[in-house]
Amino acid sequence: PHGHDSSDKKNKDVTTLEWSSNGELLATGSYDGVARVWSRNGELRQTLKGHRGPIFSLKWNKRGNFLLSGSYDKSTIVWDVTGEVGFVKQQFSYHFAPALDVDWKDDLTFASCSTDKTVQICRVGLARPIKTYTGHADEVNAVKWDPSGTLLASCSDDCTAKVWDINSPRNEPKWDFKSHQQEIYTVKWSPTGPGSKNPNKVLLLATASFDGSVRLWNVANGSCLRILSRHRESVYSVAFSPSGEYLASGSLAGQLYIWNVGDGVHIKSFKGKGDIFEVAWNVEETRVAACFSSNVVSVIDFKKP
Predict the structure, then answer these.
(1) Distant-in-sequence contacts of 194-203, Cβ < 8 A, 24+ apart
(2) Is the pLDDT of residue 136 over 70?
(3) Considering only CA atoms, which of 144, 202, 208, 134 is closest in space to residue 177?
(4) Is 261 helix (H, G, I), strand (E, B) or coil?
(5) In the predicted model, is pLDDT for residue 102 greater than 60?
(6) pLDDT of residue 231
(7) Rounded-to-integer distance, Cα 272 and Cα 252, Å
(8) CA–CA distance from 252 to each of 51, 192, 292 (Å)?
(9) SS3 for 134-197, per residue?
(10) Could you give the percent of the chain with pLDDT greater than 70?
(11) By the 8 A CB rule, do 300 and 270 touch?
């Protein structure tokens, strides 16, 4: 289904994928603009056609009834995937350039970001965006909600990461983090603080940049808590462990590091072939997976120090 039929010459490269929260369904987005939903045994359940360009980001809402996609065609689509056949619940076309990332705040509200330098917050059933944030000076690469769904982080080619408070009447960011020297490709919240499984631990934001550093920010007071700077190449991916106590980071040239968040000490290294584009932890916090441009996925054992 991703390209068995030789008569269909479209590029079916898979650009993004995500499991539903119950782990039963896998959604994949591809370069041909089609989103597909698969069961755990590999059966193709739904084929979602609506975008007119590659899909860059795909996210399930918590309930699992909606799938959200962001595309090169400048639009975001909320798909209703509850029945046998998925359909477009609502298409949002308010960006003026490709939509690079999307993230759900709750089961109905989501954020999207774009090459057009804006961040938008939309809700299913409402015709217009609830908010449009215009603070970035270059394309916005990623958006992520914190565990409580009140703070939204965005990062950009303008070398800044910004944190927006959805409850603030102002359209300026709560925090504007400017100390990276090059583009910031991704941001991740720690699974800590209000709304998380570790509510008594401090909420942190990790930013990963092409300058080779990962920075950890305390969003209570806007301070930079740690600068993790061992990478020699651009950092494309970071992931907090489920407890929030460790952080994995992966860079171009195949370098993976695992850090202790508490003191910023680097505790494990792994070098693979090719560039690392994504890292992820298992729930038990005993393994880290990394995917490489050399078509390899490595799973690295991790023992707590």
Answers:
(1) 194/147, 194/148, 195/146, 195/147, 195/148, 195/149, 196/147, 196/148, 196/244, 197/242, 198/243, 198/244, 201/244, 203/146, 203/147
(2) yes
(3) 208
(4) coil
(5) yes
(6) 86
(7) 10
(8) 30, 28, 9
(9) CCCCCCEEEEEECCCCCEEEEEECCCCEEEEECCCCCCCCCEEECCCCCCEEEEEECCCCCCCC
(10) 97
(11) yes
Residue type, 231: H
The whole-angstrom distance between residue 125's C-alpha and the CA centroid of its chain comes to 24
CB 165 within 8 A of CB 151: yes
| Whether pLDDT at 6 is above 70 | no
**C-beta of residue 302 within 8 angstroms of C-beta of residue 286:** yes
Give the pLDDT confidence score for residue 199 in this predicted structure.
97
What is the residue type of 8? D
Q: Which amino acid is at 23?
A: G
Instruction: Give, in order, the Cα–Cα distances in Å from 88 to each of 28, 35, 111, 124, 255.
Output: 16, 11, 18, 11, 40
pTM listed for this prediction:
0.95
**CA–CA distance, 113 with 299 (Å, rounded to integer):** 31
**pLDDT given for residue 206 in this prediction:** 98
Radius of gyration (Cα) for the chain, nearest Å? 19
DSSP character at residue 203: P
Q: What is the mean pLDDT of residues 124-135?
A: 97
Q: Which of 240, 278, 287 is nearest to 259 (CA)?
A: 240
C-beta of residue 276 within 8 angstroms of C-beta of residue 237: yes
- Is the model's pLDDT at 2 over the cut of 90? no
pLDDT (tens digit, 9 = 90+) per residue, 27-46? Answer: 999 999 999 999 999 999 99
298 and 292 Cβ atoms separated by less than 8 Å: yes
User: Six-digit token pair at 116?
Assistant: 């057009």
Structure tokens given for 228: 């993790």
Q: What's the token pair of residue 204?
A: 């942190």
